[in-house]
Amino acid sequence: MRTRKKTGIWIFFLIVALGQLFPLIWLIDFSFNTSADFYSDSILKWPSSPQWQNYLNAWVDGKFLKYLINSLIVSSVTILLTVVLSLTLSYAFIRMQWKMRALLYSILLLGIMIPIHATLLPNFAIFKELGLTDSYLGLILPYTAVSVPLGTFMLSGFMRSIPKEMEESALMDGSNIYRMLFQIIAPLLKPALVTIIVTTFLNCWNEFIMASTFLSKDSLKTLPFSVMNFAGQYSSDYGSQFAVMVLTSIPAIIIYAVFNEQITKGVTAGAVKG
């Protein structure tokens, strides 16, 4: 009876996993088809002759490499700022005693409830006056501002679980506060830091509305614009559009697969400790 129940559970999870993976399988499958194959009745249709030209079109006509570099710059700087600010803020709120600490912490956490696109118009008006549109900072600043509240919240839960005696011992050994924070405390927060890094990366990597509003220079555009390059005269080249989407999704899939275990630890442990 137990074996049958266990088999049933595995079958159920296998079906759920296939359901989750099907959009990716469908995307990869049709990226090798010609545009005419998209009008067939088949849900999946592997071509007799895979159209590798679709990927070449995606790389060249989609300006994939240029936009990839821009996305990496924006994502890397955003992740660095988010990690540093979240770590220092969580330490200040949890370990230090100062006036209005609880109030400011509550105000900061309100940022978790504010969607990034709700700030689109005010950010655009402010950045236009400051000359930050058509620049990397025009994306990095709002991306960081939206990511820091959640990062601070997660790290605060972990920070409470670290014994204060470790910090006292480090200070007695002559360590300053920055060395103690980044060399002693930060390694203990690895699961939470990895979770913050991955979630921030995914949010930056897939964001398009704010990027399309703030950026008009082609030299600064990020990876989602690769798909837009097939509008107009290339609008019927569905295979190349699907190839662009496959190439765009590969970095996110690899990063999530590599750090999946750390993300699970970060979320579950943070829920208990927070």
Automatic annotation (TrEMBL):
It is a multi-pass membrane protein. InterPro entries: MetI-like (IPR000515), MetI-like_sf (IPR035906). Its main location: membrane. Residues 68-259 form the ABC transmembrane type-1 domain. CDD domains: TM_PBP2. The chain crosses the membrane at residues 7-28, 67-90, 102-120, 140-159, 180-202, 238-259. The keyword Cytoplasm does not apply. It is found in: Cell membrane. Keywords: Cell membrane, Membrane, Transmembrane, Transmembrane helix, Transport. It comes from the Bacteria. The keyword Transmembrane helix applies. PANTHER family: ABC TRANSPORTER PERMEASE PROTEIN MG189-RELATED-RELATED (PTHR43744), SN-GLYCEROL-3-PHOSPHATE TRANSPORT SYSTEM PERMEASE PROTEIN UGPE (PTHR43744:SF8). Belongs to the binding-protein-dependent transport system permease family. This is Carbohydrate ABC transporter permease. It comes from Cohnella suwonensis.
